[in-house]
Design a protein that fits this description.
- Chain A: Belongs to the binding-protein-dependent transport system permease family.
- The complex is a heterodimer of chains A (321) and B (267).
- Chain A is mainly alpha-helical and 321 residues long.
- Chain A is 69% helix and 1% strand.
- In chain B, helix 3 crosses helix 14, helix 4 runs parallel beside helix 7 and helix 4 crosses helix 11.
- Chains A and B meet through helix 2, helix 4, helix 5, helix 6 and helix 7 of A and helix 1, helix 4, helix 5, helix 6 and helix 7 of B.
Chain lengths: 321, 267
């Protein structure tokens, strides 16, 4: 198979990965085929495209439409134009949710990445029963968000929780994990980290396989300390993984629901309310569905902004292999 | 150094296991012990009373059956549909291939949370609100597997497919008899990833399932907690029941899950 788009003339042939890989989309493959082949292709794609069209793309367009309506979800609503969006601007709970979602993202993303990288480096080295340790660390990934959150409720209960038991046993004052806003927020973050670090570690472990031992040896010979080797060899080498995780963690955090909804329900006094819990409350409890759809659209725009960044930077690679 | 590393790994593992261990302890502790307020890392006596109480008060077996049925059917649909699409994108030449692939990919970043209100309207209009299908169909509409399937099937030599075509096999036959047998590891990865996701799914089933007897385990768990309130023994007993099947599956077939997550990651 010949590649249709050649690298720019004069480009050094031995540049490492990304630059050398920037060819057009799927050279040779996506071009002409017989009519029969095209028909077969559309037939093979049909079930998937029908499902995606019906249950993802159609609701997406519909959501934008609903966000211009005043409706409780039963029967026809009334068209109110941009009123729902205008209401958002002066809605204290909405802004509180925006701030909380942002704060949650700003804490959970770097923390889960740092912990994940630390754990990956730790479990990548020589260690007895390394496989067992790895299994243990990814175990939370198998536990549902609801169960995780309920375990969180159990551990963080400010009256009977095991954590406060330990804290008091150490002679420290108990923490108001439910009634205190900041403490409740902290408890949600900690439970999320417990749940998410395994995923981050897994991605970093895979990335570390690509860091050649010779690089570390060379750095050691040059007199680099363990920290210097981590900082100047490991961290740059796992850069693509870090970028992927950055995007994934940000998107996850924007959409966080299970843990917050079950652990605190957004309370106390909106201290842990995030965009999706607020949208759920609005849409399915107070049944102001037009307003809830507007919150969803805001969330969509936030997600799109992040996705656009990922798209610009990894598009070519995604398409070419 | 090695001792230090091992010690660090032990600490990290203990921190990870502690909450799960505590769930098990509370689930198997007597009421008196739980109300005693004394912190015990190991209960004086183990009991199945909490488990029995939960089993008699709630349709746990029905919920378990619902979870199994919904997870299996959803995973079967999504894997089949994604494999077909992956084959088309990887091996067939047709107009609009790249554009359609991008459309499918773009839906990956779109979470149900963004469209939940509209999706709720849609399933109501379709007349499936409150049925299993209201959960199954929107959940099965995922392009996650398309991407992995395309990658994997790209690795199958085109010559193999063309040789079968020259021998007179139709596309469906090529797919079923040539491509599919080579895709076993891929199918396992996709299937387990889908099972895990569907088994633990929460936000959408919470909206789509209204009747008690149709609940999946996570929804049932939340419902039960609402009824039991501070009865941690009962809640944790049910939490234990609900997470055990997936935890066991996860440990036994770990390598497929790990591959699934790792491959969905770096590229």
């Amino acid at each position: 198979m010949t590649s249709s788009s050649a690298a720019p003339a004069g480009a050094p042939a031995d540049v490492a990965a990304p630059a050398a890989d920037e060819r057009g989309p799927s050279p040779g493959r996506a071009r002409r085929g017989s009519p029969g082949e095209a028909l077969a292709a559309y037939t093979f794609l049909a079930p998937n495209l029908v499902l995606l069209g019906l249950f993802v793309l159609l609701p997406l367009a519909w959501a934008v439409w609903i966000s211009t309506q005043d409706t409780d979800g039963f029967g026809a609503g009334t068209f109110v134009g941009a009123d729902n969006y205008a209401r958002l601007l002066s809605d204290g709970t909405f802004w509180r949710s925006v701030v909380n979602t942002t704060l949650f993202t700003a804490i959970v993303t770097p923390a889960s990445m740092a912990l994940g990288l630390g754990a990956a480096v730790l479990l990548d080295g020589a260690l007895p029963a390394r496989g067992l340790f790895r299994s243990v660390l990814i175990l939370p990934m198998a536990v549902s968000g609801v169960a995780t959150a309920l375990i969180g409720v159990l551990v963080f209960d400010e009256n009977s929780g095991v954590l406060d038991g330990v804290i008091r046993a150490l002679g420290l004052p108990g923490v108001a994990w439910q009634s205190g806003g900041a403490a409740a927020f902290t408890s949600v973050v900690l439970v999320t980290l417990w749940w998410r670090v395994g995923f981050n570690m897994l991605i970093y472990l895979a990335a570390l396989q690509g860091v050649g031992a010779h690089l570390h040896e060379a750095a050691t010979l040059d007199g680099a300390s363990a920290w210097q080797r981590f900082r100047y060899v490991t961290v740059p080498m796992v850069g693509p993984a870090s970028f992927f995780l950055l995007v994934m963690n940000v998107i996850y955090s924007f959409q966080v629901f299970d843990i917050v909804f079950v652990m605190t329900g957004g309370g106390p006094r909106d201290a842990t309310s995030v965009l999706v819990t607020y949208a759920y409350e609005t849409g399915f409890v107070t049944r102001d569905q037009g307003y809830a759809a507007a919150i969803g659209v805001v969330l969509l725009l936030l997600t799109l902004a992040v996705t656009a960044v990922r798209w610009r930077t990894s598009r070519t690679r995604d398409l070419v292999e | 150094m090695r001792v230090l590393r091992t010690a660090a790994a032990v600490v990290v593992a203990l921190v990870t296991l502690a909450p799960l261990y505590w769930m098990v302890v509370v689930a198997l502790s007597t009421r008196a012990e739980l109300l005693g307020g004394q912190l015990r890392l190991w209960p004086r006596e183990l009991t199945l009373a909490n488990v029995e109480r939960v089993l008699t008060a709630f349709p746990v077996v029905t919920w378990l059956g619902n979870s199994v049925a919904i997870a299996l059917v959803t995973s079967l649909i999504t894997v089949a549909v994604n494999l077909l699409a992956g084959y088309a994108f990887a091996q067939l030449r047709f107009r609009g291939s790249t554009a359609l692939f991008l459309v499918a990919l773009s839906t990956l970043m779109l979470p149900v949370q963004v469209i939940m209100v509209a999706l709720f309207r849609l399933v109501t209009e379709l007349g499936i609100y409150g049925s299993y299908w209201a959960v199954i169909l929107p959940t099965a509409a995922s392009a996650f597997g398309v991407f992995l399937a395309r990658q994997f099937i790209l690795g199958i030599p085109r010559e193999l497919v063309e040789a079968a075509r020259i021998d007179g096999a139709g596309h469906l036959r090529v797919f079923l008899q040539v491509v599919l047998p080579l895709c076993r590891p891929l199918v396992a990865v996709l299937f387990f990833m889908s099972l895990l996701q569907t088994w633990n799914d929460f936000a959408w089933p919470l909206i789509a399932l209204r009747q008690n007897e149709l609940f999946t385990l996570p929804i049932g768990l939340l419902y039960l907690q609402g009824q039991f309130g501070a009865d941690y023994g009962g809640t944790m007993a049910f939490a234990l029941i609900s997470v055990t099947p997936m935890v066991v599956l996860f440990l036994v077939f770990q390598r497929y899950f790990v591959q699934g997550f790792a491959r969905s990651g770096i590229r």
